[in-house]
Amino acid sequence: MKTNQLTPNSTEEKLIWFGLTLTYPFFAFGGLYIMGSVLGWMIFSVVLLRWYVNGKEPFSAIPAIVWLWVIGGLFMLLALLIGHSNWDLGLAKTIKSSIGWAKGWALMSLFLFLGSFVDIKPQLIVRAVCIVSFHSLIFAFVTIVLYMAGVHGDLFVSPLKVIGGPGETFFTVSLFGLNPETGTGRWRFFTPWAPAAGFMACIFLIFTCQEKDSFWRNAGLLGSFVMSLLSQSRAGWVIYIALIPLCVFHKHFKNPLLLVLVGLVIPAITLLGEPLFSWLSNSYADIKASRPESTRVRKTLEVLALQRWESEAPIWGHGIVERGPKIVEGMPIGSHHTWYGLLFVKGIVGLLALAIPLAFTCIYLFWNSLKSQICYSAALMLVVFICYSFFENLEILSFIYWPALLWIGIALNPLKSGEKYV
């Protein structure tokens, strides 16, 4: 089947294209974390050089909301430095944490800036994501066969781990893992852990629905579905299912018949509110009960982070995550939750540094979602971010979901987010 070809033109587009389409080759030798962390700064260097040589591009603009993200990222760094100073963590840990900031919170602001400022064809990002999703489908097929044949899932830990990072799992090359509670196979694909694969499946679903070529759209959709299914992420399943009608029917939201249908459904939901709420509550309880040990650990980590933030470091936080007690199986306090993690590590300053730009971004994207397809899809991605912020530390995964940050940055620039650019 003949497919439409998309060719990257500029150096920035080539870096984005190959950074995405070579996801699995980089993962194969444990270099994905390094590549994802460095890529944004490489593109930024090219942008600065091009700006110096050629001047400002016609559609290059830095929206006020992007400046909010940049300021928020700088406040994250300030909270980090003051937290390290308050707790006498030493120069070595301060330097290490600052490098971590450059690969996490700073990376989020950086890719939003690049999306809004750099001239990037949106369809190029969409096609590259479809290719990665298709590669995930092939990866799933091969590794399922190997799993059934009894092959060991973990292959090796890349020697690149000496460069430094959040943990060994970011440099582990693995075909699949095992669910610790059931003993069955659980796939993480190119991500550091299985729930992150569920997260990326939701992002890929939104991207692939923007693809105009039928082959790549269908291949990408199937790949994202398999990623969600094999990740066995409870949150991922729920969010993925909720996204399907939002992605499929968004073109009909201006249809008067759909508005009439919504007008009929809302009163029905109101009348059935109590039994519907009871059913949703019971379903949520059943999902949590499916992995009770994981739920208990997460809940305990949240309580510990909140208690220690309130009593020890309410303004600037503790500076770093700390290894938890035996009751949470040694999991770091400040992990598994973006908001409690921010409070524990960077205090109320860190939380506001994320909450304020996030709130303004939500308002802007939702306000423009019916006028621009890019804004609508970016709003859906932001919803996924918000949902997963209660299960993951968003900054630590920015090296894999950076295409979504680029897309949101494009949406925030009104010169680039109109329908004619889709």
How would you describe this protein?
With about 425 residues, the protein is mostly helical. It has two domains: about 10-255 and about 290-420, no CATH class; about 255-290. About 65% of the residues lie in helices and about 5% in strands. The chain has 16 helices and six strands. It has helices spanning about 10-20, 25-30, 30-55, 65-85, 90-100, 105-115, 120-150, 195-210, 215-230, 235-250, 255-270, 275-290, 290-310, 340-370, 375-390, 400-410; strands at about 155, 170-175, 175-180, 185, 320-325, 330-335. The strands form three sheets. The chain has a two-stranded antiparallel ribbon with strand order 1-2. Strands 3-4 form a two-stranded antiparallel sheet. Helix 1 runs antiparallel to helix 3, helix 4 (about 65-85) runs antiparallel to helix 6 (about 105-115) and helix 6 packs across helix 16 (about 400-410). The two termini are about 25 Å apart. The model has no long low-confidence stretch (mean pLDDT about 85).
